[in-house]
Amino acid sequence: MIMQDNQMAIEAREAPHVVAKQQGLIAPRLAPLVARLRDVDPRVVVTCARGSSAHAATFAKHLIERGLGLPVASAAPNITSVYGGALRLDGQFFLAISQSGGSNDLIEQAAAARRSGAVTACLVNEVESELAAQCEFVLPMAAGPEFAVPATKTFIASLAALARLVALWSQDRALEDALARLPERLARAAELDWSRMVDAFSRAESLVAIGRGPTLAIAREAALKLKETANLHAEAFSSAEFMHGPVSLVSPLYPILMLTPTDEAASGMRRLAEDLRGKGAALFTTDREDETRNRLPTIASDHPETDAICLIQSFYAMAARLAAARGVDVDRPRHLQKVTRTR
Questions:
Q1: Is the pLDDT of residue 4 over 60?
Q2: Which CATH number applies to 7-183?
Q3: How much is the pLDDT for 2?
Q4: Which residues of 188-212 are buried (b: 16+ CB within 10 A; e: fewer)?
């Protein structure tokens, strides 16, 4: 699929190169962090992020809880920045994720976490940022400059970096090997044709993205990008949560994008897909076993975590076309700016 020639599309196409060069830049930073974490042996990981970076934190939660058995919680930055409080994080691992490293609430939360005795690290694209200055360990996304307001290559770089961290920490050789193959797979994923969604989505007023396990973060990022790039209301749910109320929204006029993982969660997603079709849903799925006309093409499965990363690469290609179909300039999204400084 030929992507639209805009800044967002250009930067999305850079993701394979970014991931390829990232390993050499981040490896020297990961080794001392992992050594420290093994020495401290935290019982809890606390993440802190906003926007697309918060979806990367969702991916980290899945990776860490599954790979290391450690509970992962999302911090509310305003506990520090607005209410003047602090979390008791002595001996725990605090991980901030931010492309710019310039959001005041994340900066203040990181500083408070470090004062409390936490092992603090940040994953940033701007390694000279104020957030980086507040953390003991700085992990570079290594995505290079990103000028488009909607994040693409920095999001993919974040997922790859988080997977590298967990692979090293948990000594997961299979995931390390899959990450080495990821750049070439991302390049192929960017060329897949998801345009069959464009017509249905361009006429929709609202839609849902559904994921589970490694694809929940992908669903959340897809829903955000539909808002940012196409001015289209979209919400993301896990397949389990969708059945607790939101399923009542299902109708032929309410498209659903189901991002099916390639691990043990796939079977439950398939049962949900069958149920939704029975309710008349306009369902699009990435399940390679789906034989309906609305199955979206995917590259052959390699590893569940890196398979999930490839899905968002294919989605970004479609999003550029969808924005054009809806008459939206993705390089100038309304009401948005590249760096959002919240407190």
A1: no
A2: 3.40.50.10490
A3: 44
A4: ebbebebeebbebbbebeebbbbbb
